[in-house]
Amino acid sequence: MDLERLGTAGDGAIRSRRGREREQENGKYLIALVGMSVLLLSTYQTCVAAAADWRSELVILRVDRKIDLTSHIVRVVMSLKVENTGSTRASDVIVAFPPGQVDNLAYLRASAAEGRGKNKVTVPLTANPFQSEDVPSGAALFSIALLKPLNKGETVTIEVLSVFTHSLMPLPEEITQAQSQLVIYRDSAYVLSPYPVKLQSTTVKTPSPRIESYTKVDPTKVVDAEIKYGPYENLPAFSFSSFIVHFENNQPFAVVKELVREIEISHWGNVQITEHYHLVHGGARLKAGFSRIEYQARPNIRGASSFKSLVARLPPRAHSVYYRDEIGNISTSHLKSDTRKTELEIEPRYPMFGGWQATFTIGYGLPLQDFLFQAADGRRYLNLTFASPFNDVVIDKLIVKVALPEGSKDPHVSIPISSVDQQQETKYSYLDTVGRTVVVLSKKNVIPEHNVFFQVYYNFSTFSMLAEPLMLVTGFFFFFLACILYSHFDFSISKSSVSYLAKLQREEVQDAIQRLQSVMNLRLAVSEKLEASLRDLARTGDVQACKAARKAADATLKDTAKELKSIHEFLQSSTQASHILPKVEELIHKEKEKQEKLLLKHSIVVDSVDKKLPSKEIDSRIASHEQKLVLLKQEVDELLQAVDDI
Amino acid sequence: MAATATTKDATGTVLSAIILILVAVLAFSIRLFSVIKYESVIHEFDPYFNYRVTQYLSKNGVYDFWNWFDDRTWYPLGRVIGGTVYPGLTLTAGTMWWIFNSLNIPLSVETVCVFTAPIFSANAAWATYLLTKEVKGIGAGLTAAALIAMVPSYISRSVAGSYDNEAVAIFALVFTFYLYIKTLNTGSLFYATLNALAYFYMVCSWGGYTFIINLIPMHVLLCIITGRYSSRLYIAYAPLVVLGTLLAALVPVVGFNAVMTSEHFGSFLVFIILNVVALGHYIKRTVSAKMFKVAITLVISFGMVVSVALAAILVASVAASPTKGWSGRSLSLLDPTYASKYIPIIASVSEHQPPTWPSYFMDINVLAFLVPAGIIACFLPLSDASSFLVLYIVTSVYFSGVMVRLMLVLAPAACILSGIALSEAFAVLTRSIKFKQDKSEVLMDESNNGSKTSQPEKDKEIVRERPSKKSRRMEKENVEKVLEKKEVKQWSLLLPVEASAVGILLLIVLGSFYVVHCVWAAAEAYSAPSIVLSSHTPEGVHVFDDFREAYAWLSHNTDIDDKVASWWDYGYQTTAMANRTVIVDNNTWNNTHIATVGTAMSSPERQAWEIFQSLDVKYVFVVFGGLVGYPSDDINKFLWMVRIGGGVFPHIKEPDYLRDGQYRIDSQATPTMLNSLMYKLSYYRFTEADGKGFDRVRRTEIGKKYFKLTHFEEVFTTHHWMVRIYKLKPPKNRLRGKNKKRSKSSSKGGKSSSWKKQEKRNPWH
C-alpha cells in the first residue's frame, strides 16, 4: 500500500520536475537569480575569476544537516567543516543543490563563525549563483566567498541556511474533512556537494511522530519525530541517494498568492499601510463538502488540516488597524498591543481548508517619526520591513508600493535582498495636482526571512506640505470672492436695451401699485375705524370720542389723498401702466366716493346723535347712504382684487 | 428706521442660514449611527443591487449602462438593467463619484454610495424649508426643516448605507412640490421650467413619481372648483404637464407609460379642464358680460363634447387591458385588498403590508398629534399654497394606511404641517408674553415693529385676508406703523403670561421628547444593516456575520460561472457580494420564474433536484435561523414559496403543508411539509447539534429528525448555521439501483402514490 503510494508520488514528482526543467530553459538567467540571497553586495566578476579552478582541493571534513519540516516552509541548516588539502589558496566554497530543489529555493544565507568562546560572532558571507559545465545532472551551484582565503591545511566552518517553499507535496492530494494531511518530502540522504565528504549526517524533523513511511538509507534511525540519516563516511563528490519521507503535517499551509502592500507616507505624521492578501490553503484539497456540525463538535479532529487564524506582528504603536474584505468589515480579529509590538490575530471569514481561498485587506497607520528619518545628506528616508507581518506564510508574489508625498524627488531604494524588480508609477490621491511618485518593488517567492528593513531615500522640501492647504485656502477665498462680487454686481447684459428699460419701468409701476395698495389699505382701515366709532357711539353715546376719531380720520385721509394723487400722476406718466391705468383711476375714484359717502354718513349720524334724535330716524336718514356705501364697498373690493391680480 | 430694519433683516438671514447649515449637519450626522455602531457598508437587499449598478456605471460609463444586459441574474433569462431600473439614484451617486475622482479625491464607489442617503436627507431638509417658507414663512420653514432632519420614518430609509431610491426620491418629491408652490405664488415661467426638471429627476429616481403627477392635478382641480383660478395656476400646471410628460417619457423604464397608463390620465384630464377654464377667463376679460354668457355656454358645450369623446376613447382603450391600465402596485393602493387576492408576490413583502398604529407612533412620533393643529393653521387663512398642503397630508395619510412603505411619503407632509403648527403656536405664545409685558409701551411707541418672523402672519390678518402674498416683502413700514396699535387690540385674545410660559415650556418638552425618540430610533431601531446581526450578551456584543461568510465562501470557492439558487430575497445580495449567477432576485419581474424556485423548494428532494438541474443550478442555499433564533429565515417564509409556487403550478397546494390550518414543523407536521426540500435543507443534521433538534425560532422540536440527503450534499454551513449551502449531486449519481431502493423505501411510507402523481405533473418534464 505504502509502496504503491510512493510510486505514484514519485511519478508525480518526476513529472513536475520535468515541467520545472522546461521553465528553467525558458528563463535561464532568471532562474539563476530566483530565490537567492545576497547579504553583501558583490560583483559577478568574482565568480568568474573563481570559476577557473573552482574545484580546488577542498575536502569537507564534516557536514551536519538539519532538515526542518515542522511547518510548510522547509528550512535546511547545514554546518560544513571545510579543509583545504590542495596547494592553492581557496577563496570560495561551493555548495550544490539538486535541480528539483533549487526552483523552490527562496532564501540562502551563509555565515561563518569567528572567534572563540564568548567572543564568537557569526559573520555573514556572500553567496552567489555559480555556473559550471562540469556538474552532473544539472545541479545548481552557489559559491560562498570566504572572509579570508583558505591556505593549505586550514579549516573553516561555515553554516548555510537554505529555505524552500512548496516542497511538501500532499499525498493523497484530496482528503476529507476528517482526515489529517499527509505530505511527502524528497531529498538526497547524502549532502550534495562538489567536494568529497568525510563524515556526514542528516536529521529530518517532522511536526509529529506520525510518519507513514520513509526511505531507508542505512544507517537510518527514527526517534520520535526525527529521522536520522547517517553517519555516512567518505563519500565522493556529487554522491546522491534519494529519500522520501511521507508524514503527517497539519501545520497551516498558508500561501499568499499575491500580496500588494501599499505604503503611503504623509508628512503630516502618518505612514499608512494597506495590505491586500489573496490567501490560499496550499495543502491537500478538501474532498466532499464541509460539515459544520462535525467541525464544531471536534474542530481539532474534524478539521485537522484546516487553519482558522493567522497572527501578524505589526510594529509597535500601530494604530487604526482594520481588517476587511471587499464586502465589508470582518469582525473576527483580535488586537493586542504593548510597547514592543502590536499583535493582530485575524480569522478569515471561514476556516481555511485545503484549496480554499480568501481575500482580505488589513490596514494600519504608523507614527511617522518611528519610520521616517533624515539622512546626513539632507535626504529623507523611510525605513520599513519589506514583507508581510504574518508569521509563517509563503508569498508567491509580493508587490510593495511606496507612495512618496507629493513633491518628492529622486527616489532611491536600498534593499538587502536580491532579485527585486523596481518600477515607478504616479498616483493621484487627495487633492493632488502633479501626482505622487510611487516606487513599486516586486519579488516572487517571499518567506518570513525576507522580512528585513529596506530604505527608500528621497528629496522633499517642507514647502510642498503647504501646497494642498494653500490650494484649499485660495479655492475657498476665490469662491467667497466670487459670491461677494456676484451679489454686488448687476449682470444684466445691456443697461440701455429696450427690454431692460421696460423691465425697470415695470418694476416702478409695480412699486407704484404696491404703494397704491398700501395707501388703499390705510384708507380702508380709516374707514373701518370710523365705522367702529359709529358703533361705539351707538353703544356709549360718547360724541366727543366719535368726533375725535373723525378728526383723525380726516387728517389721514387728507395725507393719503395727496399720496394717491402723486401715484396717479406717476402712473399716468408711465407708458407701462397704460393697461392698468383705467382700473386704477376707477379704483381711486370709487374709493374717494366711498370715503365721502362714509364721512357724510358719519357726520349725519353724529349730528343726529348730537340732536338726540331717535335711532329710528337716524337709520332712515342714513339708509340711502348705507345702500350706496355697501355697493361702493363691493366695487372697491372687486377693483382692489383686480389690481392685485395685475 | 430703515437702517435698523435692514440690520434686522440681515441678522435674520444670517441666523436662518446658520440654522439651515446646522439642520443639514444634524440630518447628516443622525444617520451615521449605522456607520459608527456597525461599519460603512451597504444595507439590506435592494441597496446591494443599486450598488452593483453604480459600480457598473462607474466602470463602464453611462452608455454601456443604458445598454446593460445582465446575464448574471434571472438565469437563463437575464435582465435588461438599463431599461428596467430607475436610474436617478445610480446616476446621482455615479456623478458624485466622478466629481470626487476628477478632483483627485479617491473615494471608492462604496463610500459614495453609503453616504449618498445622508447627503440627500440634508438636501431634503433644505427643500422642506423652502416649501414651508413658501407657504407659511421662514419660522415655520425652519421648524419643519429641523423636524424632517430627524423624523424616524425618513431615517429608516436613509441611514448611511441605505442606498435606495427613496433616499434621493424624498428630496426630489419635496423639491418638486416646492417649485410648484413657488410657481403658483410667483407665476414665473422660470420656476415652472425648473419644476418640470425637478419632476424629471423624481421620475428618474422612484416609481413614487405617480404620487406627484396625481396630487398636483388634484390640487389644480381643487383650486378651480373653489374659484381660485388665476394665470399663476395655469403657469404652474401647464408647463409641468407638457414638459414633465415629455421628460418622463425619456426615462427608459417609464417610456410610453407616461402617456399610456391610467396613473397619468388624471393629469391630462385636469390639463384639459384647466385650459377650458383659462379660455373662459380669457373670454370674460375680452368681451362684455352679456356676450360672455353666450360664449361660455358655447365653450362649455363644445368642451363637453370634446371631453366626452376623449373620455370614450380613453375608457375604450383602458378597458381593453385587464388591470384597467393600472399597475399592480397602484391598484393595490386604490384597493388595499387587491394584492393579497391576486398578486401574492407583492403581498409577501413585509413593507407592502398595512401599518399598525404603533408604527405611526414609532415613525412620526409627536408629529401625529401636531398635524391636526397644522391643518387648522393652514386654514387660517387658506391660500393656494396651504390648501395644497392640506391635500398633500390627506392623501399621504391614506396611502400610508395602505402600505407601511408609504409612511415615507407621509413623513415630509407631517413634518411640514407640524412645523407650521409649532411655529404658529410659538408665535402666539411668545407674542402674548411680549405684548403683555410691554403693552403700554407698545401703545405709546408706535415704531416698535415686533419680530420680523411673525410679521407676515400679522400682515395677513390685517390685509383683509387677501390670498396673494407676492407683495409681502415690499410692503412699506408706514402701514405697519399705523396698524400696530390696532393689531394689539386685535390680539386682545392674548393668553395670560403664565399660561403662555407654561405653553412654551410644554412645547419645548414635546420637542425634546421628539428629539430623544428620534435619536433613539436612529441609533437603535433603524441602523442595523441587516446583513450583520448583533446581540448583546453579558460579555459584550456578539456579532452574527453569517451572510457575508457564506457570500465570501461562494465567491472564492466556487466556479465563477456556477449558478446559485435561493429564495428571491437573497438574489441581489448574491449577485453583488458573491458575484454568482442567480435564478431569481428581488426585482420580481417574472412571477413564473419565482414560482419555479418556490415549487422546487416545496417539492420533495428528487423533484426539486430535477427542477434545479433543468435550470443548470449547481448550488442551493437556504437561510436557517433555528439554531440561533433568527426569525426571518426561509422556514418562516416558506408558506409564501408554497403560495407563489402554487399560484403557477397547481400541484403545489397550500393545505398540504398545513395541519388543520396551522403551519408547523414539529411531529404534527404534514408529510409533504417534512419531505419538502426546504425542510430537509434547513434541518439536515440539525438534531446532532443539540441532540434534540430544538428549533429556537419555532420553539419546538422538529418533526423529522434523522434523514439523509440523496440528491444534495452539504458543502458549507456558516458559523451560526444561518446560511447552509448545498451542492447538487451530479446526474450520474442517479443510478438505477438507487432509484429502486428509494421507491422501495417510499412505498413503505405509504405516501408514494402522491409523490408519483407529483412526479408526473412536474412542470419541467
From TrEMBL, chain A:
GO terms for biological process: protein N-linked glycosylation via asparagine. It is found in: Endoplasmic reticulum membrane. Its main location: endoplasmic reticulum. The keyword Signal applies. GO terms for cellular component: oligosaccharyltransferase complex. Pathway: Protein modification; protein glycosylation. It is a single-pass type I membrane protein. The keyword Transmembrane applies. Keywords: Coiled coil, Endoplasmic reticulum, Membrane, Signal, Transmembrane, Transmembrane helix. The chain crosses the membrane at residues 470-489. It comes from the Eukaryota. Residues 615-642 form a coiled coil. It holds the Pfam family Ribophorin_I. InterPro entries: Ribophorin_I (IPR007676). Residues 1-20 are annotated as: Disordered. Subunit of the oligosaccharyl transferase (OST) complex that catalyzes the initial transfer of a defined glycan (Glc(3)Man(9)GlcNAc(2) in eukaryotes) from the lipid carrier dolichol-pyrophosphate to an asparagine residue within an Asn-X-Ser/Thr consensus motif in nascent polypeptide chains, the first step in protein N-glycosylation. N-glycosylation occurs cotranslationally and the complex associates with the Sec61 complex at the channel-forming translocon complex that mediates protein translocation across the endoplasmic reticulum (ER). All subunits are required for a maximal enzyme activity. Belongs to the OST1 family. Component of the oligosaccharyltransferase (OST) complex. PANTHER family: DOLICHYL-DIPHOSPHOOLIGOSACCHARIDE--PROTEIN GLYCOSYLTRANSFERASE SUBUNIT 1, RIBOPHORIN I. This is Dolichyl-diphosphooligosaccharide--protein glycosyltransferase subunit 1. It comes from Araucaria cunninghamii (Hoop pine). The lineage of its organism: Eukaryota, Viridiplantae, Streptophyta, Embryophyta, Tracheophyta.
From TrEMBL, chain B:
It is an enzyme of class 2 (transferase). One of its GO terms (molecular function) is metal ion binding. It is found in: Endoplasmic reticulum membrane. PANTHER family: DOLICHYL-DIPHOSPHOOLIGOSACCHARIDE--PROTEIN GLYCOSYLTRANSFERASE SUBUNIT, DOLICHYL-DIPHOSPHOOLIGOSACCHARIDE--PROTEIN GLYCOSYLTRANSFERASE SUBUNIT STT3A. Residues 746-755 have a biased composition (Low complexity). This is dolichyl-diphosphooligosaccharide--protein glycotransferase. One of its GO terms (cellular component) is endoplasmic reticulum membrane. Residues 455-476, 756-765 have a biased composition (Basic and acidic residues). Residues 732-745 have a biased composition (Basic residues). Its EC number is 2.4.99.18. Residues 14-417 form the Oligosaccharyl transferase STT3 N-terminal domain. The keyword Oxidoreductase does not apply. Residues 561-620 form the STT3/PglB/AglB core domain. Its cofactor is Mg(2+); Mn(2+). Pathway: Protein modification; protein glycosylation. Keywords: Endoplasmic reticulum, Glycoprotein, Glycosyltransferase, Magnesium, Manganese, Membrane, Metal-binding, Transferase, Transmembrane, Transmembrane helix. Belongs to the STT3 family. It is a multi-pass membrane protein. Residues 444-476, 732-765 are annotated as: Disordered. It catalyses: a di-trans,poly-cis-dolichyl diphosphooligosaccharide + L-asparaginyl-[protein] = N(4)-(oligosaccharide-(1->4)-N-acetyl-beta-D-glucosaminyl-(1->4)-N-acetyl-beta-D-glucosaminyl)-L-asparaginyl-[protein] + a di-trans,poly-cis-dolichyl diphosphate + H(+). Component of the oligosaccharyltransferase (OST) complex. The lineage of its organism: Eukaryota, Viridiplantae, Streptophyta, Embryophyta, Tracheophyta. Pfam families: STT3, STT3-PglB_core. The chain crosses the membrane at residues 12-33, 80-100, 112-131, 137-155, 167-192, 198-222, 234-259, 265-283, 295-320, 360-380, 387-404, 410-429, 493-516. InterPro entries: Oligo_trans_STT3, STT3-PglB_core, STT3_N.
